[in-house]
Amino acid sequence: MADDLQEKLDEQLRYYRARAPEYDAWALREGGFDRGPRERAKWFADIAKLERALDRFHPSGHVLELACGTGQWTERLTRYADRLTAVDAAEEVLDLNRRRVGDGVRYIHADMFSWRPTETYDVVFFSFWLSHVPPERFGQFWSLVRTALAPGGRVFFIDNLASPEAEALDPEHPGSEEGSVVRHLSDGRAFRVWKVLHRPKQLVADLGELGWDAAAHRAGHFFLHCRATPRGDR
Ligand SMILES: C[S@@+](CC[C@H](N)C(=O)[O-])C[C@H]1O[C@@H](n2cnc3c(N)ncnc32)[C@H](O)[C@@H]1O
Questions:
Q1: Structure pTM?
Q2: Atom 4, ligand 1: which residue's CA is nearest?
Q3: Model confidence over 102-116: pLDDT tens digits?
Q4: Whose CA is nearest to atom 12 of ligand 1?
Q5: Which domains does the chain have, with CATH numbers?
């Protein structure tokens, strides 16, 4: 069973490596993700809500970005961070991030399910990543986040929301297993990836069980943002 899960995680990573050159179309609502001007306006209004929430959180100090992708949010983090380290398992994605942001960012090529941080950080940030963590690895992932935090450290993340509007945005077919979907690249290649959409209230409860104090909020129709600190870490 464990091997089966690893195979799926490998497939998910292969998908993001192959998708690197076309990834930004999703965030920018272009090409196959274009649903017309009204939907685009709603999307960017919600992105602006996430940006304001990030601004209020103010991720300063030494910041660690997990699964940084092509840099959509890395660039925003540089406005607040004193030092920024960005990690991803896809070299193709890291290359694009380096080209977009590069200066002053330390990049680490590592797999989130085996990486062990060798230092600690004031802030751990991740965007649109938690929904790709299978439920079986949720606890393990949060242990990694805990290990990466310095005393008094804080976590902030954003993701798609479990909502009819957010689900309608994903044009792909649901997979046979809960939380798994089939995604296609523009050349037609198909990959199975995890897409576990969370609801703010349940997320706070799940994180509470793992020893985190969390506050999660929906941002408009499509997204949620969440801040968390390890309980008792004051
Ligand atoms: C949905 S994208 C999010 C990227 C970026 N955070 C953003 O918001 O644009 C998911 C990212 O996770 C990375 N990824 C996939 N599997 C990974 C793994 N096992 N370890 C680390 N990163 C992984 C992919 O390369 C991709 O950049």
A1: 0.95
A2: 69
A3: 999 999 999 999 999
A4: 67
A5: 2-230 (3.40.50.150)
